[in-house]
Every structure is written in C-alpha cells, then in structure tokens.
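Table S2 (text version). Query chain:
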Amino acid sequence: MGSRIWQIIPESVKKRITIQNLFGKRIAVDGANLVVRYLLKIRRNNEILVNRVGYPIAHLIGLGYFVANVYKYNIKAVMIFDGTENELKHPKVAKRTEFAQQYIKTPKMIKENTLVLYRYVTESSTEFVKLTGLPVIVAPSDAEAQGAVMCAHNQVEYIATNDYDALLFGAPAIIRNFNFSNREMELLSLQDVLNALNLSQEQLIDLAILAGTDYNPKIKGIGINKALKLIKKYGTIERIPQIQEEQKRRMLMARDVFTNPAFIKRKFFFTPPIGEALKRFLINSGLSSKKATAITESILKNYKSHIKIQTTLI
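Corresponding structure-token output:
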C-alpha cells in the first residue's frame, strides 16, 4: 500500500527530467521496484516468462538491459533489495519467511505465490548483479529506507524508486519512473515538498501515519486531506484529541520506523564484470546461449566504454 502522501504533493514541485540529466550520477536503485516492473513487462501469453523447468527469467533479461544502460550512461548505481520484513508491516513475519524459504526452489509455488516469487527473484537478482560489477545490498529491512539514508549521507545523489515512503525515511531527492528510453522521469526534492506543504519533516511523517501506512492501519474517517488539516491544527499526533490511546501507541511505533530506519553503513566498491561467470550464470538460469551471450556482450561493451565507473562510494 505505502503512504498516501502522493495525493497531496503539488504538481509544481515535480520536476521533469530524462536519462540525459543523470549521466555520471550516483544513484541507489530500489531493486524490488525494478524487478517487479520487469516481471510484469517481459511476459509470454500474459504470464510470467519462465525457463523450461518453470523458474522465472524475465527479471534477469530486464536486469541485463538495466546494467548495460547503467554502464552506457556512466551511472554509478547501487542496487538495494528488501531484507527482513518489519513486523509492523507483517506481524507473522517469521512464518512468512519460513514459508518462502521452504518453497523457494519449487517452480509451481514460485509462479503462484507472490512472496515466494519475490524471494526467489531477489536471490537470483542479487547473484546476477554482483557478477556485473555493481554493488548490491540486501537491506536490514526496507530497500527505500536504506537508499534514503545513503542519500541523506551523500553516498548517492538520488534514490530511484516509485515508493513515496523514501521521502518519509528522509531521502533528500527521489527519482520516480526511472527509465533509459528518454521518457520523462519525476524528480522530487524533499525540501521542495516540505516547503510546498508548509510542514516539517516530522510533521510530514505524522501526516502520512494519520492517513495509514504499511506500518499502521488507517483510522476510519481520516483520509489524507483531513490528516493534513489535523497536523496543521495540532502539530503532532500526540496533541490530536480524537486519537485513542491504542491507536496512538501503534502510530508512535510506526513513527519510529521512519525516524530511525534500519540501514547498513559501509563503503561500496564497483568492480569489473566477470564475463564468463555472468554468461554461465544466465545459461544455468535457463536463458539460451544466444540470449546469455548477447546480454553479457552488451554489458561488457558498455562497461569498457566507461571505465571511469570504477570508483568507491564513501
């Protein structure tokens, strides 16, 4: 679900850019957003594209295209995937994880169960991207939280995600609808959003929580516009009289998720793609030798044209 703050962000603060504006930039990429897009887009007969055994391969084809273009535009991309799910988001998180791991090598279950599908896709995507030379992080919790902190610490300049929650986690700038086809993308500055709404970061978080997030349920009768009015009037959740104590307790727990996000602090290294291993991995994953060779050669060709991408993120 995510937060509903997108409903009140003015169009005037949404800057339009294209891939040409991002040449040479440092960008954290929300891996879940990316691979889900490829799973939905690269399909056969409107079904997930799978290999002969039944394992998904669409995300690997999409990621091959993505990495080749990252090198083409000299973008220093760090791929981030969700880690352990927050218990506020899924109270039965341990059972969900156990279920996913139990069936992660079962093609039929992967195809029919979204959680198992995501776990399988995350594992195979992580292995693939590592072979391409780009840094990969499996975040302690939410990918957009990890990316937001990296952006706030100036390790990267932007986080590419369609999830507005990145703003709640404190990302100074997010890019929505990231693509390489010269279609317009949306660049949002957190400070511009706060200025337009005349709110502080803390108030933006409380506003989102009042209207319901992945970490707390929506209160009946309070939509995003009413939530905005309440925050404008009272300033914080604690001061709103009509919020019951149990509701307030859950809201404050959700607030802590946004104000103290879990993240990994480390340096990130870019390394050369490992061509033969990359090609072998794709073939072993079920791609034809011809397709695996084409993807590998495209990545290597674009990498060699922009060797400057070898650097360390501080």
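Notes on Table S2: The mean pLDDT is 90. Residues 114-132 form the longest helix (19 residues).
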